[in-house]
Amino acid sequence: MRPAPTWVRRPMSLLVVVVGLAFAVTLLPLLVFIAAAASVVLPGRWRVLRLLAFAFVYLSLECAGLAVAFVLWVASGFGWKLGAPVFQRAHYAVLHGLLAAALASATVLFHLRVVDDEVSWSPLDDGVPGSTNAMLVLSRHAGPGDSLLLVRTLMRRDHDRRPRIVLKDVLQLDPLLDVYLNRLPNAFLTPGRDDLAEQVGRLATGMGTEDALLIFPEGGNFSEARRLRAIDRLRGRGMHEQASRADLMRHVLPPRPGGVVAALAAAPHADVVLVAHTGLEHLSTPADLWDGLPMDSTVRMRWWFVPAAEVPRDPEMQPDWLFARWAELDAWIASHAGDRSPSD
Predict the structure, then answer these.
(1) Residues 154, 329 contacting (CB under 8 angstroms)
(2) Tell me, what DSSP letter sits at residue 337?
(3) Confidence check: pLDDT of 125 > 60
(4) Helix (H, G, I), strand (E, B), or coil: what is residue 269?
(5) 116 phi and psi, to 5 degrees?
(6) What are phi and psi for residue 27, nearest 5 degrees?
(7) What confidence tens digit (pLDDT) does each residue in 206-240 have?
(8) Which region holds residue 78: left if phi is over 0, alpha if psi is between -120 and 50, else beta?
């Protein structure tokens, strides 16, 4: 399903968010009472109440971010200079603040903890060597919020990257993402189109030392059913060797190399960072979300830094290279998947 045109989509989504927040504020005492009563009856420690609190925070951040976006639009000459560096930096700064606030609230309300192995992939304040080039970030996609965690990490002060994100066009139904990400260099892709790789290549063109292009090569959140369908698709296309390799990877979907190859061709100077994480993959359906929240769990992350000089330059070799690296991600996930703390 493709989202409606901008002139239809934005007024409707803005109306839903504003009315939703007004409704929540007006009926907040009643909603809190109902949520507290439901939390006593239902399993989990104040599950409904904590979900209500996060929904309220989310709606508040949406409205605050959209209000700031309107101010920036007016200040830019009613959109005339939105592409100017000062306004691009302003939009990144606002997004950074909103993401930090959303993840801080999730940390408090859902007892979410993020742990990484502190492998350096970007210059840090302590002088640990890292990338000073443009970066291509290739991540596993599993569970809600992993893209938010990654973008927040890339924008942190010690990394200070300007993310360019490849994401599905349906996410434009969120008005905040719709407004901010369409004002910045990002790509909303419509599944099934023939020019998806070309769109990724255009997004990678012209990346500077502060830019990081974030791609999820699997094309969707991991689930066992999707993994099996992806393997069947490879076999149906006569790609039996890739299907056999994918069958050995039990925790990731086989990567789709088209966008990665296009990005490497458009930005041969870019270093590559691969990202694996585990802790959110058990939340893939609305029922899973309900059963798994509050999560009270740990998300573990691992980063692999590959200098541009070590990335194969021959496009014919890059799919095999990507599959091999994805097998490394799978092996790491297999060794850490049992570390998640049980939800209540």
Answers:
(1) no
(2) G
(3) no
(4) coil
(5) -120, 175
(6) -105, 20
(7) 999 899 999 999 988 888 899 999 999 999 999 99
(8) left
Helix then strand count (H, E) for the chain reads 12, 7
Burial class (CB in 10 A: 0-12, 13-18, 19+), 282: middle
For residue 287, pLDDT beyond 70: no
Cα-only R_g, the chain = 21
Least-confidence region, from 20-29, 39-48, 239-248:
39-48
In the chain, the N- to C-terminal Cα span, in Å, equals 35
pLDDT at 73 over 70: yes
What local confidence, expressed as pLDDT, does residue 147 receive? 80
- The model carries a pTM of 0.90
343 and 113 in contact (C-beta within 8 Å)?
no
d(CA 289, CA 233): 28
Q: Give the pair of three-digit tokens for residue 190.
A: 């419509």
pLDDT digits (tens, 9 = 90+) for 55-72: 999 999 999 999 999 999
Q: What are phi and psi of 144, to 5 degrees?
A: -70, 140
Is there a cis peptide before residue 294, judged by omega within 30 degrees of 0? yes
Residues 329 and 274: their CA atoms lie apart, in Å, by 8
Contact 222, 144 (CB under 8 A): no
Q: Indicate the domain borders of the chain.
A: 6-339
As given in the structure block, the two tokens for residue 217 are 């090569």
